[in-house]
Specification:
Number of helices: 20
Strand content: 5-15%
Number of strands: 8
């Protein structure tokens, strides 16, 4: 079976690795650890195709430990036990270096089975994951490991690897091989920082190319068809989705309509309507709130319209909602108000409902059944002074008017009424 080109040209030294200069560049912490020969337990966290497996292989080649590789998507506890059984035998006299790919798929018991041997140095663990290890990796294992975060490789860093792959294909080709201007750049850009994917794209592009006048030409049209949606990283329920949702929300809050449209477009490209709709609806109350209360109704109408239309037409009402929220005046008085009130309730600061607010019923403590509730609509401006909060919280202020035009107008209105002469009640 022919080896995939990406595996065949996998770097054999740190200097050949594409990207990750913050880790393995000159003076990088991971580079210094590798070059010192330290056998440390490590967790490599980051997107696929960014060099995690490659660097693990380089580390393995520099040790005298027996290398074992497991993929947590298919490995079982018995596989782990088989590896542990080799420790201290002629099969692994110097110990075991275990490379565990996709560790997030190991359950707690499987991860715990490694702890004793990691602690006494019999096993050196290098685990990789595309998900946040602080959410998916058992705490005791994390405490015995150092986490290194791998970043998506930039198009500028990926392009040399693409050119290297294309030149290898040219050397092997029985017919002359060329490519149109812009093809390497397009492949490097369209594969979303995944070097392996970009090299695989080169190989597929070559295999699918047509022969023209005795020459193989890789065209831009073919490159665009091959790339399709691969430029965007999106894994529903994974870090990429939550990062994008967070970026959309923060762009709306930060009043940047261009960024809001960009992150919305990422969801649309992935075919995910639910996540952006939830973020838009939330932002209408959390970030705009009382500064423009009508935003809730407008955004809700846009979301309902989008869900009825489906893609691609749904892009229009959702873009309208995003632009509205991003350009609307902002107030967080709603979220701060309910947050403060809820905090008191959670802390047990409640108290009895004032007698005048209770449901009408016989007062069992005496003969007077009157509750002395003052009906606001019977008074000027439909307001009368009386206590609504429990005694323990009677002077508490949860809601504070924001400094926007809408809330300030309301503040002035109520200040005028409440300070008017002749206000009644207590």
């Amino acid at each position: 079976m022919d080896r995939p080109l990406a595996d065949e040209i996998r770097p054999q030294s740190l200097d050949e690795v594409v990207g990750q200069r913050h880790l393995i560049g000159k003076g990088g912490m991971l580079r210094r650890l590798i070059e010192s020969g330290t056998s440390a337990n490590m967790i490599f966290y980051g997107p696929s195709g960014t060099g995690k497996t490659t660097i693990a292989n380089i580390i393995a080649s520099r040790t005298n430990k027996t290398l074992h590789k497991l993929n947590a998507t298919t490995a079982s506890l018995s596989d782990v036990k088989d590896i542990i059984a080799d420790v201290g035998t002629l099969l692994a006299p110097g110990g075991v270096l275990l490379y565990l790919d996709e560790i997030q798929y190991f359950n707690k018991k499987q991860q715990q089975s490694l702890l004793e041997f990691m602690e006494n140095g019999s096993i050196t663990l290098i685990a990789s994951t595309t998900e946040n290890p602080y959410f998916y990796v058992y705490g005791a294992l994390l405490s015995r490991s150092t986490v290194f975060e791998f970043k998506a490789v930039t198009p500028e860093e990926t392009e040399p690897a693409v050119l290297r792959a294309l030149n290898i294909l040219r050397e092997r080709s029985e017919l002359p091989l060329s490519w149109e201007d812009g093809v390497p750049e397009h492949i490097a850009t369209s594969c979303g920082g995944d070097v392996r994917k970009s090299i695989n794209a080169c190989e597929l592009l070559y295999d699918a190319a047509e022969v023209r006048h005795g020459e193989i030409v890789l065209t831009m049209d073919d490159a665009k068809q091959l790339a399709q949606k691969s430029a965007m990283r999106y894994d529903k329920g994974g870090d990429a989705m939550y990062d994008c949702a967070s970026a959309l929300m923060k762009s709306l809050r930060g009043s940047d309509p261009d960024a809001a449209l960009h992150y919305l477009a990422r969801f649309l490209e992935a075919g995910d309507l639910i996540t952006p709709c939830r973020r838009l609806l939330c932002s209408a109350s959390e970030d705009v709130g009382m500064a423009y209360p009508q935003a809730v109704a407008i955004v809700k109408a846009c979301v309902d319209t989008a869900m009825q239309l489906g893609l691609p037409e749904a892009q229009l009402p959702l873009a309208q909602a995003a632009i509205l929220l991003a350009t609307a005046p902002k107030s967080n008085s709603v979220v701060e108000g309910i947050g403060a009130a809820w905090a008191d309730v959670r802390a047990g600061r409640t108290g009895d409902v004032p007698r005048q607010l209770q449901n009408v019923h016989a007062d069992t403590t005496g003969t007077d059944n009157r509750q002395n509730y003052l009906y606001p609509h019977n008074y000027p401006n439909h307001w009368v002074r009386q206590q609504y909060l429990p005694d323990a919280l009677r002077d508490k202020k949860y809601y504070r008017f924001g400094d926007n035009k809408n809330e300030q107008a309301a503040a002035q209105y109520w200040e005028k009424i409440k300070n008017a002469d002749g206000s009644e009640g207590q």
